[in-house]
Fold:
Amino acid sequence: MAEPGGSRPVTVSDVQQLVKKKDEIEAQIKACYELLEGQKGVGMNEPLVDAEGFPRDDIDLYQVRSARHNIICLQNDHKALMKQVEEALHQLHAREKEKHAKDEAEALAEAMSQNQSLPQAFAKVNAVTPGSPASISGLQVDDEIVEFGSVNVNNFQNLQNIATVVQHSEGRPLSVTVIRSGKKVHVGLTPKRWAGKGLLGCNIIPLQR
Structure:
């Protein structure tokens, strides 16, 4: 496994290998404790001499000393390994967090790029009467108008500009471009007399920029 600061990033497989080693060490420690338990229940600290200071003859002193030594070494190995596991997990989490942040940043950049590539609207549809020429053309409430015939953001001054285009285009299709749900949509609108008021049957308001 790559050490922290190494050239190769830590993988899930590396962590699994470390955990496997940890399990193996824990099994060895358990076996050593069981060996001590089998020697009259001698633990890590019980004296290995009798009351008179002589080596105990009821236990295998070599096995006990060896088991105790192994337990101390294995516990040190276990502690070092646990630190490695912790560092490896930290690196994995940090990389996942970094990847998530990068994905979010890329999504945001893409959204901003799309917004920047959209033309600027100068007016907005805030009402459409059912059955009207505007409704039949597909114009919808909240559509933001980018082009209305010859009117666009560069020459739009007030709603009279749109009214003039509508009056001069009665009975003829007008090319209208709107932004709807973040996308550019083209609508063919033909101003004409209908059962309701005006030639469109929709209400348009200027956008405050």
